[in-house]
């Protein structure tokens, strides 16, 4: 694929992301994306076969961008607790973002498509994040920053709390104080008792 094609595909994905944010997943058609991109139907089908394929590419793009932003903010001498705190602060920002989020579209996609567990990118993303947190907790325990008898369980619990907050925010709404309370509880469960 040439540079012009790569740029066109990226433009389509960035534009489609806005459409998915605005309409969710279920209501978006290829026609919506064609109109938003101001390209021909054939021009869109040159790159993508369906809204599902476009949506999965949007999720991949989003995940890579999130990883890049987070990775760039970690200093080389950061401790495990520094990194975990930065991760939780980034999650708080994401949780409190009511607009410009794909959360509704993501849940609609997964409720409609029900991919097999082994093929489910959302599960893979959850498991990868849990593994990273588990490693952070293990490093913190080793360095005396954290106390934890079950690092894997603690990491998965943190991910479940964050996922629950995400759903709660989409359905009921959350405040910064609510998120702070949960983050404080997470950090207290890992604190070394003096």
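Sequence proposed for the structure above (194 residues):
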């Amino acid at each position: 694929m040439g540079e012009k094609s790569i740029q066109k595909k990226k433009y389509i994905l960035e534009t489609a992301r806005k459409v998915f944010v605005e309409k969710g997943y279920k209501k978006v058609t290829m026609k919506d994306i064609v109109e938003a991109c101001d390209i021909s139907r054939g021009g869109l089908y040159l790159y993508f076969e369906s809204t599902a394929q476009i949506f999965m590419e949007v999720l991949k793009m989003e995940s890579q961008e999130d990883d890049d932003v987070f990775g760039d903010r970690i200093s080389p001498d950061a401790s495990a607790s520094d990194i975990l705190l930065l991760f939780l602060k980034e999650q708080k920002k994401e949780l409190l973002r009511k607009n410009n989020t794909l959360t509704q579209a993501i849940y609609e996609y997964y409720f409609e498509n029900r991919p097999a567990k082994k093929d489910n990118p959302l599960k893979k993303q959850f498991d990868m994040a849990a593994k990273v947190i588990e490693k952070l907790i293990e490093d913190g325990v080793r360095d005396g920053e954290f106390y934890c008898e079950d690092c894997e369980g603690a990491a998965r619990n943190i991910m479940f709390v964050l996922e629950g907050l995400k759903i709660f925010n989409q359905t009921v709404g959350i405040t910064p104080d609510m998120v702070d309370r949960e983050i404080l509880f997470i950090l207290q469960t890992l604190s070394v008792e003096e």
